[in-house]
Design a protein that fits this description.
The chain is an alpha/beta fold and 406 residues long. It is built from 14 helices and 17 strands. It folds into two domains: 137 residues, Aspartate Aminotransferase, domain 1 (Alpha-Beta Complex), CATH 3.90.1150.10; 255 residues, Aspartate Aminotransferase, domain 2 (3-Layer(aba) Sandwich). The strands form five sheets. A seven-stranded mixed β-sheet has the order 4-10-9-8-7-5-6, sandwiched between helices. Strands 13-14-17-16 form a four-stranded antiparallel β-sheet, with helices on one face. α4 runs parallel beside α5 and α11 runs parallel beside α14. The longest helix is centred in the N-terminal third of the chain and has 21 residues.
Length: 406
């Protein structure tokens, strides 16, 4: 089916706002997407009709909430095609998911002299946890370089893999460049080397189908708020063989079987990694967001967003002195650029005055900016509710920016 923009947009109340007396144009979807009425209503329904702690109560509301929560886990398992629902761990988002693996995997499997590989285009959330893990275990962090188009140097990746490489952590889609990485090939090469792979799917999940079986990744993580769901909730998929061996990331209630002052035994999966009171409402909201994506359809979303991407590149190319940062052959939904030697922050500030929300700066990817020797970029990023008319508004606004700066 085609994306029917007028119908879809009506499902997102915030898109009806005016900013500085102008209709809101929201192009900051790589940071967070807006939420449809279905998600908002699901949160309200939970707090009005199901609110209770789960797994621990014999009463009606607890049973109702527990059933809904575990059904959400099963539906998310299907969404990513995981083999078993206990391989689906609920977290606060991609950042916590990566930190969980960095802590627990490294504690069990990382030894002095070992190596972890990440790429040059990673978000800080997939850099800093591995730096800390390597520091704590006297291991070494190695970097897969990229070319000037913003594509990973696979020839260098092959050279970096060695018997010392214990884990590869790489983004599926770059948040700063929009590059879609060849993660299946990355995983295949790593597994030939007996190396585990974590994939940061935060930017991929809203745009492309995720099939962890087909990828054969060892870990995959994503966040609800980047795919039309609530903030503060996300998913870590991990293969059972790794999760069973890894120690708990946090301790407290729910992650235990028995506690005594002599010894504590840990709960079974997935609860071993879900300490404390869970974020039940937002898990259910994330489930509803996933249902929304499936109802629209990945093919329709991809077609619409790719049309927007090409249209934006063509329209922006009409402007003089525009420099695109990231021109990979395989990319999605992100256009990063510099304009007329104007600092990105200045461009973004003026666009905001004209009702247009963009992201400016290094996008939590400072090594990417260092690679291109720039302070940052203006980034526009698309969702299924954006339109070509909004891109036209942006192009006109950039012309005004140029006039203001002479």
């Amino acid at each position: 089916m085609a994306v029917k923009e007028d119908i879809l947009r009506k499902q997102f109340p915030i898109l009806g706002l005016t900013v500085n007396k102008r209709p809101l144009v929201y192009f900051d979807n790589a940071a967070t997407t807006q939420k449809p009425v279905a998600v908002i209503d699901r949160l309200r329904h939970y707090y009005e009709s199901e609110n209770s702690n789960i797994h621990r109560g014999a009463h009606y509301l607890s049973q109702l909430a527990t059933e809904a929560y575990e059904q959400a886990r099963e539906n998310i398992r299907k969404f990513i095609n995981a083999g078993q629902n206990h391989e689906v761990i609920f977290t606060r988002g991609t950042t916590e998911s990566i930190n969980l693996v960095a802590y627990a995997f490294s504690k069990k499997f990382l030894n002095p002299g070992d190596e972890v590989l990440i790429s040059e285009m990673e978000h800080h959330s997939n850099i800093v946890p591995w730096q800390i893990a390597c520091e704590n275990h006297q291991a070494h962090l190695k970097i897969i370089p990229m070319n000037e188009k913003g594509e990973l140097r696979m020839d260098q990746y092959r050279k970096l893999l060695s018997e010392k490489t214990k884990l590869v952590a790489v983004t599926h889609v770059s948040n700063s460049l929009g590059t879609i990485n060849p993660v299946k090939e990355i995983i295949q090469l790593a597994h030939q080397n007996n190396t585990a792979v974590l994939v940061d799917g935060a930017q991929a999940a809203p745009h492309i189908p995720i099939d962890v079986k087909a990828l054969d990744c060892d870990f995959y993580c994503f966040s609800g708020h980047k795919m039309y769901g609530p903030m503060g909730v996300g998913v870590l998929f991990g293969k059972e063989k790794w999760l069973e061996q890894m120690p708990p990331y946090q301790s407290g209630g729910e992650m235990i079987k028995e506690v005594s002052f002599k010894k504590t035994t840990y709960n079974e999966l997935p609860f071993k990694f879900e300490a404390g009171t869970p974020n039940v409402a937002d898990v259910l909201g994330m489930e509803k967001a996933i249902q929304f994506i499936l109802e629209v359809g990945h093919k329709a979303i991809a077609r619409h967003e790719n049309d927007l991407l090409q249209y934006a590149i063509n329209r922006l190319s009409e402007l003089e002195n525009i420099r695109f940062i990231g021109t990979a052959e395989q990319r999605t939904s992100v256009v990063s650029f510099l304009f007329n030697d104007i600092h990105p922050y200045d461009t973004g500030t003026i666009l905001d005055k004209l009702g247009i929300a963009v992201r400016t700066g290094h996008h939590c990817a400072q090594p990417v900016m260092d690679h291109f020797q720039i302070p940052g970029t203006v980034r526009i990023s698309f969702a299924l509710y954006n339109t070509k008319e909004e891109i036209d508004v942006l192009v006109k606004a950039l012309a005004k920016v140029r006039e203001m700066f002479g």
